[in-house]
Amino acid sequence: MANKKNFKPANNIQDLQYFGEFGGVNPSISDSSTYTFLSAKTMFDTFEGNADGCYLYSRHSTPSNLYLGEALAAMEGTETANVAASGMGAITPTLLQFCEAGDHIVSSRTIYGGTYAFLKNFAPRLNIQTSFVDITKLDVVEAAITPDTKVLFCECVSNPLLEIADIEGLAKIAKKHDIPLLVDNTFSPLSISPAKLGADVVMHSLTKFINGASDTMGGVVCGSQELIDTLRNVNDGACMLLGASMDSLRAASILKNLRTLHIRMQQHSKNGLFLAQKFEANGLRTVYPGLASHPGHELMKKQMNQQYGFGGMLTIDAGSLDKANELMELMQERNLGYLAVSLGFYKTLFSAPGSSTSSEIPEDEQVEMGLTDGLIRFSIGLDADIERTYAMMRECMIEVGVL
Ligand SMILES: *Cc1c(COP(=O)(O)O)cnc(C)c1O
């Protein structure tokens, strides 16, 4: 992929030049829900989607949202992007835009609990059926495609099991069957550039690493101008009509945080790799894409942008839910992190996905995909002294009998 070689996502963000209307170094925040038109004719054209550069109404777009969208499109190397009020507010309208009643989706079975619940429980009400497959087996993925399939969906690094999807391989299959490959890149921003590997649409929950402050929700869909125009269409665009639009104030704050993402990802990755290596050496069952023992390690190395590392997410198996809970409570008591869902914070966050974020997945299916009761998912923080953190975590593990 000659294309990917020269692709520098953090530079692309850095190189954007946005001035505020008074020459401010940050763009001004648009504090309006609606916009005036100088002529009635322009208002008509804008409704028809033909008046570039004119704003209509904030559910459609705002200057602040467009700034953030363009920065995220630059990061992913797509033509443009549309921001949304949450990750789910980007993912569900996009999936729906591609499908009608009677259509079919092929999805990885290890995906975010909310996306799984949407495809499994909600989409069938619209007569959209999903086949859930082991995304690491390309032959299985291809065999699940039917003449009704309209979307191939996966996460680059899956939640919570950290499986690595072969984006180039999946893109080839999608192309062969003339369907789009939609990917959720929430766990691996900057580290993986899926559009450069052949994905058609790249989505994120901005709530996680990209904003990184755990103070807001947000989402984005990055893709072609044609797709984004379709999603925003006033007559049949799912983003416009389902209404999960981002507020301008939030778009402005997320844009400011996006600019330090490359530094944060490097620190999350450095700390994640350090702890994963230590935990594994201590004999804990540890899953981290940066470990040679991870089945997707070589693939990850091949498709990642090396300088951002293997990311901040890892899992260990504490043996049982009771042990996992005991350990998490003790670590929180010792201020090693918070027992909380979500990820990408400065502080380490941990949770037991089987009983929380993936509880939407029925128990027998959890077992089949390797989601054990004692699994603890860590989002490793930006700790300045990770050796001290490790020493303190190890003490907790010894005290509760996990080590
Ligand atoms: C959190 C998350 C989402 C959903 O995003 P929200 O901002 O919570 O709506 C989707 N995919 C992944 C991988 C996530 O971690």
| Number of separate domains | 2
Quaternary state of this entry equals single chain
CATH architecture of the largest domain: 3-Layer(aba) Sandwich
Strand proportion:
5-15%
* Elements, N to C (H/E): HHHHEHEHEHEHEEEHHHHEHEHEEHEH
**Structural class by secondary-structure content:** alpha/beta
Shape: globular
Low-confidence stretches: none
Largest sheet: 7 strands, mixed
Summarize the structure.
This protein has helices spanning 2-5, 9-14, 40-47, 63-76, 87-98, 113-122, 138-143, 167-176, 225-232, 238-242, 248-258, 261-281, 297-303, 321-333, 363-368, 386-400; strands at 80-84, 104-108, 129-133, 149-155, 181-184, 201-205, 219-223, 286-287, 313-317, 338-339, 349-351, 375-379. With 403 residues, it is of the alpha/beta class.
Jot down its keywords.
403 residues, alpha/beta, Aspartate Aminotransferase, domain 2, Aspartate Aminotransferase, domain 1, 2 domains, 7-stranded mixed β-sheet, 5-stranded mixed β-sheet, 16 helices, 13% strand, binds pyridoxal-5'-phosphate
What layout of secondary structure does this protein have?
Blueprint: H1 2-5, H2 9-14, H3 40-47, H4 63-76, E1 80-84, H5 87-98, E2 104-108, H6 113-122, E3 129-133, H7 138-143, E4 149-155, H8 167-176, E5 181-184, E6 201-205, E7 219-223, H9 225-232, H10 238-242, H11 248-258, H12 261-281, E8 286-287, H13 297-303, E9 313-317, H14 321-333, E10 338-339, E11 349-351, H15 363-368, E12 375-379, H16 386-400
Helix pairs in contact: 4-11, 12-16, 14-16
